[in-house]
Amino acid sequence: MQSAIASNPENSRGRLYLEKESEYRSSFQRDRDRVIHCKAFRRLKHKTQVFVAHEGDHFRTRLSHTIEVGQVARTISKTLELNSELTEVISLAHDLGHPPFAHVGEDMLKFKMENYGGFDHNAQAIKIVTSLEKTYAEFDGLNLTWETLEGIAKHNGPLINDIPYAVDSYSNIHNLELSTHASAEAQVAAISDDIAYNNHDLDDGLRANLFTENDILHLPIVGECFSIVDAKYPGLDPIRRRNEALRRIFGVMVKDVIITSKSLIQNSCASSSQEVRELGSQIIQFSPDMNEKINEIRIYLFDNMYRSDRVNIMRERASLIVGGLFDYFMNDKKLLPVQWSYGANEIQQARLISDYLSGMTDGYAEFRYTELTSGS
Questions:
Q1: 243, 216 Cβ separation under 8 angstroms
Q2: How much is the pLDDT for 51?
C-alpha cells in the first residue's frame, strides 16, 4: 500500500534518452543500480566525511555516510508509505559531487570558481550523472529518470536565485522545474542526511577524543538517551554504553520526523506527488521543538569538532592542495590529462579543471599535489 502522494515509477516522466524499460526492475530500481555501479559512487570510499581516511579505519567516509543516509531514508519512506526505491537512489546519489576533503575542498573550489560560474556539490552530482560518467554506448551520463534527477537537484528545496550553471544548463534541455519543491521522497532523503551526519559526527567526535560522553550530556536528546541506557544497563562497559545511547538518539530523531510528517501529509490535502511539489513548503519536516534541539547539537559539533585544532590542521592542508592544484592546472593545462585540457576559453577550462578536481579522491589529490610540488 502506497500513499497517494508517493511517486509511482509507472507514471515517471521518463528519461532524456528513450530506453526500453527493464523486464524485472522498476525505473527507480534501475536508477539505483546505475548509481551503485558508477565510478563516482565507488570513489566516495576514499573521500573525507570529517576525518581523512588515514586517521582511523572506523571514521565515516563519504561512502559510509551515504549508506547510512540511505538506511535512514528507507525506514522513513516505507513508514510514510512513499516510494522507498526513489528515496534510496536520491540518497545514494546526493553526495556524488563532493570533492576531496569534504566541505573544505568544496569551499576552496567555490572560491576558485567565483569568476567561472561557481561550484556546488549538488550541481556537480547532476553533472556527473548526466554527462561526466561515460559508461553506456548510446549516451553520456547514467540517463536517470526525471524524478531522480529532480530529487538530486533540489532535495534541499527549490532553486530560484543563483542557480548553479551545471543544473541550469541541464534543466534547459530536460526541465527539472527548479522553482518548485521536490517530491516527498527527495525531501525524505534530505532530512535523512541531517539525521545521519548529526548522529555519526557525535560518534566520530567521541572516537577521536575531541570530547567525552560527559562533555555532551548537557545536549538535548543526548543526555536523556544516556540516562535511559544507564538506568536499563547499570555498569555497562563504555563502548557498549556509547553505542546504545547513540542508536537511541537516532531513533528519537527518526520518530519525530515520521510523526511530524504524517501530520503534515494528512493536513496538506495533497493527493499526488505533483501536488506535493506545488505546496510551497516542505511536507517532510522535524517538529519545531526537534529543530531547536538539533540546532543546539549542530552548534556544539561546529564549535568542538568541525573547528577543532585537529580538523583545522586538515582544513589548512586540504585548502592548500585543492587551491594549489587548481592554480597549477589553470597556469599550465599541459599538466592535465588530455580529456580535461580542451577548454575553448578560460571559463570552459576552469570548469573542466573543477570537474577533474571534484572527482579526485583524497589520496589522488595528495598524490598529484606532491607530484607537482616535489621539484619546488
A1: no
A2: 57
Q: Is the full-model pTM beyond 0.85?
A: yes
Q: Mark out the alpha helices in the chain (DSSP H runs).
A: 27-37, 39-43, 62-79, 84-93, 102-112, 121-127, 146-154, 165-171, 184-207, 213-216, 222-232, 238-268, 273-277, 288-301, 309-331, 346-358, 362-373
- What distance in Å separates the CA atoms of residue 114 and residue 97, rounded to the nearest whole number? 17
Asked if residue 273 lies in contact with residue 7, where contact means CB atoms within 8 angstroms, the answer is: yes
Contact 357, 337 (CB under 8 A): no
283/82 Cα distance (integer angstroms): 12
Bridge partners, 15 (sequence order): 145
Architecture of domain 24-376: Orthogonal Bundle (1.10)
Mean pLDDT, the chain, integer: 94
User: Which pLDDT belongs to residue 361?
Assistant: 95
* DSSP letters spanning 75-89: HHHHHTT--HHHHHH
pLDDT of residue 312: 76
Under a CB-based contact definition with an 8 Å cutoff, are residues 52 and 101 in contact? Answer: yes
C-alpha cell at 216: 555532551
Q: What is the mean pLDDT of residues 83-97?
A: 97
The angle subtended at Cα 122 by Cα 298 and Cα 108, nearest 5°, is 75
Report residue 337 as a C-alpha cell: 590529462
What does the chain come to in residues?
A: 376
Residue 364 C-alpha cell reads as 589522488
Burial (CB < 10 A; 0-12, 13-18, 19+), residue 170, is buried
CA dist 161 and 80 (Å) reads: 31
Strand partners, 48: 61
| pLDDT tens-place string over residues 124-149 | 999 999 999 999 999 999 999 999 99
C-alpha cell at 261: 510528517
Q: What is the pLDDT of residue 1?
A: 77
41-67 pLDDT, tens digit each: 999 999 887 655 555 566 778 899 999
Q: Which is higher by pLDDT, 247 or 312?
A: 247
Are 51 and 150 spatial neighbours (Cβ–Cβ below 8 Å)?
A: no
Grid cell digits, residue 58: 572506523
Tens of pLDDT, residue by residue over 194-228, are: 999 999 899 989 988 899 999 999 999 999 999 99
Q: Where are the domains of the chain?
A: 24-376
DSSP-assigned letter for residue 220: T
